[in-house]
Write a structure and sequence with these properties.
Elements lengths: L1 H11 L3 H20 L9 E2 L11 E9 L3 E10 L4 E9 L2 H4 L3 H19 L1 H5 L5 E7 L3 E5 L2 E4 L16 H11 L4 E7 L1 H12 L5 E8 L3 E8 L14 E5 L16 H8 L10 H4 L1 H17 L21 H6 L8 H11 L5 H33 L1 H4 L3 E6 L1 H5 L3 H13 L6 E5 L3 H12 L2
Parallel strand pairs: 2-5, 5-8, 9-12, 12-13
Antiparallel strand pairs: 1-11, 2-3, 3-4, 6-7, 9-10, 10-11
This protein binds alpha-D-glucopyranose.
Length: 450
């Protein structure tokens, strides 16, 4: 067993040479994406958001947030002094709606907005002349045509509402809001990364410059401020000098020219609805880290090397885990690895020996570390692309998502790989939580229109 485990851990290791290779490829593919859109390239979507928040913005706005398994509605009050207040409700999105028809799906969302308004904004429902401006944080690749319109390129993260692809999602949602006569106007469609970027800029009251907003959660992605003149493919009208670009870096290296590709990655890809797309995301984000672990344990079990005593396990069932499993395992410092044992039992029905628990932890650690190292190449890719470290003394990155916030040592491991890639400059980069990014960011984008 030990020899097999060591070999697998080795297969997940990322050498310094590989890091540089990935960094080069990222810069190249991102630059290409800014010039032209192709089906398999990095989307690099111009978002039409051109104002960097100052922290002095004011007002109350609605935000609807669909990013993964939950739908959230909030009203956000910006206090004009880097602060905000937020009232929110959230609901899980039933799985059948995630893979059903767009009509039923947007009807469900509109109904939840109605429930929220009835509970928290009775005054709005009673006055016929009032209209709420809403930012719609829709965290999927949308090819934007303006601040509040755009067509869905493809679904990610397990969603698969086929008839919505190629449609204007704002229009689909607005129709259902209007059908309920809610007097809510979708003033902006916002990717969660753009929300993170805006919210972090709004809250940031120190001199370091926020230039990137990134998400490491169920999925992974980043948005950053780019010079409009460098976005070669942008043909819209724009007087501003900079614009937020939604990279959709989950689609970095879809053709696998440089990304590591173990047999476990191959098997995982085959199980996904967006097969052969978002290949970077499938190695980095929360939806996939637990599944990669399952793939490895399954192989070791099938070849008779691990968990021989467990007969009625459920290792063969895909997607039985989320990131919380490797994440909790990695916090285990007990001598007999109690937490690792509990997770194996709870999620896979596995009884384990101490050696098996040690082996499992080593594998989880290898998968999590590879994720952070690969992620670092994309972060440094954006720093290089923007030349931010040549322009500013210190550069700030706003982040959000379960992996960013809770995966043990994830950000520290990103920094470790950054040190390899950019040396001491790594110390001039700060990472911070983009607090309430999807709500505050959506409000800031809804406001931008005025
Ligand atoms: C997926 C989506 C992207 C989103 C990211 C994080 O990669 O395609 O739009 O930003 O997940 O939620």
């Amino acid at each position: 067993m030990q020899a097999a485990v060591d070999k697998i851990v080795d297969e997940f290791a990322v050498s310094d040479e590989k890091l540089f290779e990935l960094l080069d490829a990222f810069q190249k593919q991102a630059t290409e994406g800014l010039q032209k859109s192709t089906e398999r390239g990095m989307p690099m979507i111009p978002t039409y958001m051109t104002k960097v928040p100052k922290g002095t913005e004011k007002g109350t706005y609605l935000a609807a947030d669909l990013g993964g398994t939950n739908f959230r509605v909030c009203s956000v009050t910006l206090d004009g002094n880097h602060g905000h207040n937020l009232v929110q409700e959230k609901w899980p999105v039933p799985h059948d709606l995630q893979v059903g028809s767009s009509k039923e799906f947007f009807k469900f969302l509109a109904k939840k907005v109605q429930d929220f308004l009835c509970k928290h904004h009775e005054e709005h429902m009673e006055r016929s002349d009032s209209e709420f401006r809403m930012g719609f944080t829709f965290s999927f690749p949308v090819d934007q045509h303006s601040t509040n319109s755009g067509t869905l390129l493809r679904w990610t993260k397990g969603f698969d509402i086929k008839d919505a692809v190629g449609k204007d999602v704002t229009e689909l949602f607005q129709q259902e809001l209007d059908a309920l006569d809610l007097k809510v106007h979708i003033a902006a469609i916002v990717n969660d990364t753009v929300g993170a970027l805006m919210a972090r800029s709004y809250h940031n009251d120190n001199p370091s410059q926020t230039i990137v907003g990134c998400i490491f959660g169920t999925g992974t992605n980043a948005a950053y401020f780019e010079k409009v003149k460098r976005i070669g493919k942008f043909k819209g009208k724009c007087d501003a000098k900079i614009m937020a670009v939604n990279t959709e870096w989950g689609s970095f290296d879809n053709d696998l020219t440089v990304l590591p590709n173990t047999r476990f990655d191959v098997a995982l890809n085959k199980l996904t609805a967006n097969r052969d797309f978002h290949m970077f995301e499938k190695r980095v984000s929360g939806m996939f880290l637990g599944e990669l672990l399952r793939q490895v344990l399954l192989e070791l079990n099938s070849s008779g090397l691990m968990f021989k005593g467990s007969e009625s396990h459920i290792l063969t069932e895909p997607w039985g885990t989320d990131t919380s499993v490797p994440s909790i395992m990695e916090t285990d410092t007990s001598d007999d690895l109690t937490l690792v044992g509990e997770q194996l039992q709870q999620h896979f029905g596995l009884d384990s020996t101490l050696d098996e628990r040690r082996a499992t932890l080593a594998i989880a650690h290898a998968i999590g570390t590879r994720a952070a190292y690969i992620a670092a190449t994309a972060v440094c890719g954006l720093l290089k692309l923007t030349e931010a470290l040549d322009i500013f003394d210190s550069v700030d990155i706003g982040g959000d998502g379960s992996v960013f916030e809770f995966y043990p040592n994830f950000v520290q491991n990103i920094r470790k790989a950054m040190r390899v890639l950019i040396g001491d400059d790594e110390q001039r980069v700060t990472f911070g939580l983009a607090k309430d990014g999807s709500g505050v960011g959506a409000a800031l984008c809804a406001l931008e229109q005025e």
